[in-house]
Design goal:
This protein is mainly beta. Helices cover 0% and strands 76% of the residues. The protein has one domain: Lipocalin. The chain is built from no helices and 10 strands. The protein is globular. The N and C termini lie close together (10 Å).
Length: 143
């Protein structure tokens, strides 16, 4: 199936956040789009928040690297490389904040017919050298 012009997809997104001894789970059923540009796949959707929608783009690179970008007032760009610590930034109305991610587990599975796939990321988020949380993202999509 040709997805160079984009293809509508259904997304099931589950995130788990552990911070300060507390765990929160978030589950979303969303509509999105998958687009292939060169050898790179882009999954786009809008995350529903209390104060509106936030555009999210997940970029799946051929080398296995995954980038997650959340747009809006506070722009966040996270990079995930298996078993590596990656520096990243978070643009807030108060200025730029710097973080790093350490990806403990990363798995991407894609199917062509029908167009479907899954993404699982288990990572720690650091500010300076202090771990501020543990996160898990599980995303399944189908056309």
């Amino acid at each position: 199936m040709d997805i160079t012009n984009g293809l509508p997809i259904s997304i099931k997104l589950a995130t788990k956040v552990r911070q300060h001894g507390e765990t929160q789970d978030f589950i979303f059923d969303l509509q999105g789009q998958i687009v292939k540009m060169g050898d790179t796949l882009y999954i786009r959707y809008k995350e529903v928040q209390e104060d509106g929608e936030v555009p999210v783009t997940i970029k799946l690179l051929p080398d296995g690297t995954v980038h997650l970008t959340r747009a809006g007032d506070m722009r966040m760009r996270l990079k995930f490389v298996y078993q590596e610590k990656m520096e990243t930034s978070y643009k807030t109305p108060y200025g730029m904040m710097f973080f790093s991610t350490f990806t403990k587990n990363l798995h991407v599975s894609l199917k062509e017919r029908p167009t479907a796939g899954s993404l699982y990321i288990d990572y720690d988020l650091y500010m300076m050298d202090e771990r501020i949380g543990e996160y898990q993202i599980s995303l399944d999509f189908t056309a």
